[in-house]
Design goal:
heterodimer; A: 112 residues; B: five-stranded antiparallel β-sheet; 11 strands
């Protein structure tokens, strides 16, 4: 069974640009969560989607958004990129809500 | 009250020894406590998890001890091996809001 797949693995952008990251969950998993990981702040929750609906949102500015498609695949978008957005963005999927989360290997986003 | 405090920040253990990592929480609504293992360049991988209705859970060399009254839980790695060298994260969530709150992580090094 394939794991959580995140694309691209690495991305370099400049300030002010926008970026879209993609996540394909484990087959059959309907819940997808996104996290930001940085050396200074650790792992921080961004948002969670289930059945195309955002269930929870972390404490991030509106520049961070996401969506989930009918096949459970998810995308997150960051607009007007700032230097501080440089981080590893992790996607996790679970069968449904309140089930163990399984992570992808992340997208490393670097802002120049 | 949402914090999960993890210690130590780093840990060096001899091969064959016992590695112990501790976490403490304040939110009594938390009812799910997973531990994740993360290798460089990889996403966190679920190692073992516990719910507050049991005080201990063992899977192979990994054991979670849970003290509900003290609001603490710990990970014990028996017969630690060099391959266990990784960063370990504790986390917690509540059933009403399955959003993982993460500890800051412990970098574990097992010396051969």
């Amino acid at each position: 069974k394939a794991g959580v797949t995140q694309t691209p693995r690495y991305l370099i952008k400049t300030r002010g640009q926008q970026v879209t990251l993609s996540c394909s969950p484990i087959s059959g998993h309907r819940s997808v969560s996104w996290y930001q990981q940085t050396p200074g702040q650790g792992l921080q929750f961004l948002f969670e989607y289930f059945s195309e609906t955002q269930r929870n949102k972390g404490n991030f500015p509106g520049r961070f958004s996401g969506r989930q498609f009918s096949n459970s695949r998810s995308e997150m978008n960051v607009s007007t990129l700032e230097l501080g957005d440089s981080a590893l963005y992790l996607c996790a999927s679970s069968l449904t809500v309140n089930q163990p989360q399984h992570f992808g290997d992340g997208t490393r986003l670097s802002i120049l | 009250q949402q914090q999960v405090k993890q210690s130590p920040q780093s840990l060096i253990v001899q091969k064959g020894g016992i590695s112990i990592i501790n976490c403490a929480y304040e939110n009594t609504a938390f009812d799910y406590f997973p531990w994740y293992q993360q290798f460089p360049g990889k996403g966190p991988a679920l190692l073992i998890a516990i719910r507050p209705d049991v005080s201990e859970k063992k899977e192979g060399r990994f054991t979670i001890s849970f003290n509900k009254s003290a609001k603490q839980f710990s990970l014990h790695i028996m017969d630690s091996q060099p391959g266990d060298s990784a960063t370990y994260f504790c986390a917690a969530s509540s059933g009403s809001n399955y959003q993982l709150i993460w500890g800051a992580g412990t970098k574990l090094i097992i010396k051969p």
